[in-house]
Amino acid sequence: xxxxxxxxxxxxxxxxxxxxxxxxxxxxxxxxxxxxxxxxxxxxxxxxxxxxxxxxxxxxxxxxxxxxxxxxxxxxxxxxxxxxxxxxxxxxxxxxxxxxxxxxxxxxxxxxxxxxxxxxxxxxxxxxxxxxxxxxxxxxxxxxxxxxxxxxxxxxxxxxxxxxxxxxxxxxxxxxxxxxxxxxxxxxxxxxxxxxxxxxxxxxxxxxxxxxxxxxxxxxxxxxxxxxxxxxxxxxxxxxxxxxxxxxxxxxxxxxxxxxxxxxxxxxxxxxxxxxxxxxxxxxxxxxxxxxxxxxxxxxxxxxxxxxxxxxxxxxxxxxxxxxxxxxxxxxxxxxxxx
Length: 339
Prior knowledge:
- Strand 7 (168-169) and strand 8 (175-177) form a beta hairpin.
- The strands form 4 sheets. The chain has a 6-stranded mixed β-sheet with strand order 2-14-10-13-12-15. Strands 3-5-6-9 form a 4-stranded mixed β-sheet, with no helix packed on it.
- The two termini are 22 Å apart.
- The chain is of the alpha/beta class.
- It is built from 5 helices and 15 strands.
């Protein structure tokens, strides 16, 4: 028994990184529920978010003890890993859904950027404005695109991220959007339990996007956002929202965390692909939306090499496994993780 406890504690304590460096959002679902705490989920969490005090210092994309920065390479495999992988597609190939001309763009704004009004379709689960979104803010897919039309604005002076789903600029400088969320990048607060965000799982999008400058530095120190064709009507920590009516336990819940197996050889991948693949081994991937199988999201950036990223398409679903990230949870209403 003592040995078992020691092993579990060792797995927990290795969890959070201490790096100094740093789909459609569905209509609100009153019936979507968190899985029991025994399954590594939110359980009977209160409705309000846990507001971790913001810390002074350089603006990073969430603190080093945030769950997005957690090292999951040694966490135990989740008991439902095989069925979840099979439901997403064990033979389906991975797809880097980002590159030089596609992905989710991030618009940086200067200090003092004027706030504008945003009108939301799902106002009851959206953070009210104003949002400091300029008229020329980049929209996922381009100004005339269909699809999710995410807008991500990063204000490093205020150390906040502003995220919109299905966003469209209006002639008067205001915006219309399906839903929206504001994040203090120095804190670990989660959204209210049951709330969506600009993403179906109620999670922030910005911390799950690999960036070209990270890959160039040879180290991506966070989990990566990805999609699956079918999900369950449930969510696990740190997700806050479900986007399905399906109750089949073989389907993964929103927030499920996967990692690339340690046995997968990535040594011959070109540098950018190798950096992404290593992040998938160390920090894993978090299921954040319904969509194509094993589609991993990153930034749209001319500094990416589509040719290098194409090497990731050799990965298959069977190269991944789900992990039990509940061992990292300190508080079901906070993104802070152990130790």
